[in-house]
Amino acid sequence: MGHRAHPYRSVLYIPGSKPRALEKAKTMAVDAIIFDLEDAVAAEEKPNARKLLAETLARGGYGPRAQLVRINGFDTEWGNDDLDAIAAIGPQAILVPKVNKATDIEKLADRLDAYSETANTTIWAMMETPMGILNAMHIAEAPRMAGFIMGTNDLAKELGSRTRGAMLTSLQTCLLAARAHGIVCVDGVYNAFRDEEGLRAECEEGRDYGFDGKTVIHPAQVAIANEVFAPSDDEIDLARRQIAAYEEAVAEGQAVAVVDGKIVENLHVDTARATLAKARAIAELEAAEAA
Ligand SMILES: CC(C)(COP(=O)(O)OP(=O)(O)OC[C@H]1O[C@@H](n2cnc3c(N)ncnc32)[C@H](O)[C@@H]1OP(=O)(O)O)[C@@H](O)C(=O)NCCC(=O)NCCSC(=O)C[C@H](O)C(=O)O
Ligand SMILES: [Mg+2]
């Protein structure tokens, strides 16, 4: 499954230092996992976490779940060692924190070209600095780029913003850049991980903005993200009726059909087909996870 075809409704951060959480994730119904060596791991734990994670990923067992490894930045003392250890096991994707400009990605892509194990490794960018947001368009088109993860905690810190509304321009700038270049774009985390109502509201908002899914930090958040970012039964039913009505209209020489009192043109049919394709991809992923 290509990176745009794979569902990213729930993208779970797991601290690379926690063996129990790493093991638990092998049976969780998550679409993707971020194995974290950056902020979820304390400075004194970083070398052990790097080793544990490299060994864990080399053993495998995560099935069809997409796997991203968030390394430390190259401006820290850990970034280069992280890359060496993780590149050696041929990861699916490397997630770079605090990306500021396209050259950050270009340099990493050049380095990945030099490892024999990383021919198919994609790069994802944490979008969480003002400079990164302003350069989103160029970052999205850098080599190997497959997706953006919004880092709303760092962004709030950098902007001095106190509400999600104050970050809207940043969120939408990244969405625009991601859509312009056909890469994935996943919303930031909801920190109050025991507040289900608040999480659901923020997931619904992110879905309506156009995000592919939500990053989550605790297993209890996964089911809500999966539910909100999946096409609902009503949406699937509407998509089927739109396609059928449009095909009938076309057969009669018309360019427009009407369903539930609303017009359906070719572009609405594209959206309807995308809805059905997404529902199919989710069903396939869930079947593969259960197998
Ligand atoms: C938030 C937590 C610290 C809570 O931990 P804890 O109190 O231990 O939770 P529970 O006791 O409720 O855990 C129940 C069981 O679930 C497992 N568990 C917990 N979290 C995870 C997880 N993320 N992945 C897999 N499994 C998990 C526990 O092991 C328990 O299992 P068991 O013992 O078998 O019952 C904790 O959830 C946590 O550390 N979460 C991750 C935090 C994190 O990754 N933070 C960094 C990412 S956020 C960020 O950096 C965003 C971005 O950069 C930005 O700027 O916004
Ligand atoms: Mg961050």
From TrEMBL:
Record key words, sorted: Lyase, Magnesium, Metal-binding
GO annotation, biological process: oxaloacetate metabolic process
Cited InterPro entries: Aldolase/citrate-lyase_domain, Citrate_lyase_beta/mcl1/mcl2, Pyrv/PenolPyrv_kinase-like_dom, Pyrv_kinase-like_dom_sf
Transmembrane segments: none
Residues reported in the UniProt entry to bind Mg(2+): 128, 154
Coiled-coil ranges (or none): none
Binding site for substrate: 70, 128
Required co-factors: Mg(2+)
Residue span(s) of domain HpcH/HpaI aldolase/citrate lyase: 9-219
Annotated EC: 4.1.3.-
Any one GO molecular-function label of the UniProt entry: lyase activity
Signal peptide span: none
Family (UniProt): Belongs to the HpcH/HpaI aldolase family.
Protein name: L-malyl-CoA/beta-methylmalyl-CoA lyase
Organism expressing this protein natively: Roseicyclus elongatus DSM 19469
